[in-house]
Amino acid sequence: MPDYKILVVEDHRDTRELLKYNLASAGFDVAAAEDGAEGLDRARGFHPDLVLLDLMLPGMDGLEVCRKLKQDPGTSGVPVIMLTAKGEEIDRIVGLELGADDYVVKPFSPRELILRIKAVLRRSGGNETGSRPSAWERDGLKVDFEAHQLEIDSESVPLTATEFKLLSELITGQGKVQTRDHLLDTVWDTHFEGYSRTVDTHVRRLRQKLGPYAEWIETVRGVGYRFRS
């Protein structure tokens, strides 16, 4: 298996060097940036498989960097783990709503961080097997689960890793109601207590990308969502 490429965007020199050392020791190919502008620049040139992004950066903060990464077609599919010294729930919620795939609160254990990175890479890399078919198609909607690609009326539509996992989970359970708690557990791999609106935000964005097929994701009021069978 080729080495995964990790981009670390962290302004604190000691933390940045510690992250680089631990990630390199774990077998990752690591690049680093010390502020948001440099991070965006490196993301476009280094083509990372994952971005480790500090929330509190000078100038352009981590939330703005995350927003720009998700808006750029060249980096929109790259998973992001946010690092934050803040414990406030609002920062975590905003980061997740912007498209971050996970967050880790400082101070953190390097071992735990690496495990979280590997979990996100597994989720975004299409390594799930199980009983899911390699592809799914109905009318003008086509999903290639192995290639992590969505086509709508023969046009490729870019999705973030989280959006693709959410769509895959809904399609796999089509016809069944899936609660917000279930989607948090399966799509984000962790249950974020009280973060049900994060699911709503991602469903809303997914519907926007599905265009004429948006109504295939039905809201079951007070419970969750169902993909129309």
What count of structural domains? 2
Tell me the name of the CATH class of the largest domain: Alpha Beta
Total number of helical segments? 8
Strand content: 15-25%
Tally of DSSP β-strands:
12
Assign the structural class, choosing from mainly alpha, mainly beta, alpha/beta, alpha+beta, or little secondary structure.
alpha/beta
Q: Calculate Rg over CA atoms.
A: 18 Å
Order of helices and strands: EHEHEHEHEHEEEEHEHHEE
Strand order of the largest sheet: 2-1-3-4-5
The stretches of 5 or more residues where confidence is low (pLDDT under 50) are: 126-131
Largest sheet: 5 strands, parallel
N-to-C CA distance: 37 Å
At the fold tier of CATH, the topology name of the largest domain is: Rossmann fold
Characteristic terms for this protein:
single chain, Rossmann fold, 229 residues, 8 helices, alpha/beta, Arc Repressor Mutant, subunit A
Write up what this structure looks like.
- The N and C termini lie far apart (37 Å).
- 33% of the residues are buried.
- Helix 2 (36-46) runs parallel beside helix 3, helix 4 (89-97) runs parallel beside helix 8 and helix 6 packs across helix 8 (196-210).
- The protein folds into 2 domains: 5-124, Rossmann fold, CATH 3.40.50; 135-227, Winged helix-like DNA-binding domain superfamily/Winged helix DNA-binding domain (Arc Repressor Mutant, subunit A), CATH 1.10.10.
- It has helices at residues 13-25, 36-46, 62-71, 89-97, 110-124, 161-172, 180-187, 196-210; strands at 5-9, 29-33, 50-54, 80-84, 102-105, 135-138, 141-144, 149-152, 155-157, 178-179, 217-220, 224-227.
- Strands 2-1-3-4-5 form a 5-stranded parallel β-sheet, sandwiched between helices.
- 41% of the residues lie in helices and 21% in strands.
- Strand 4 (80-84), helix 4 and strand 5 (102-105) form a beta-alpha-beta unit.
- The radius of gyration is 18 Å and the shape is globular.
- With 229 residues, the chain is an alpha/beta fold.
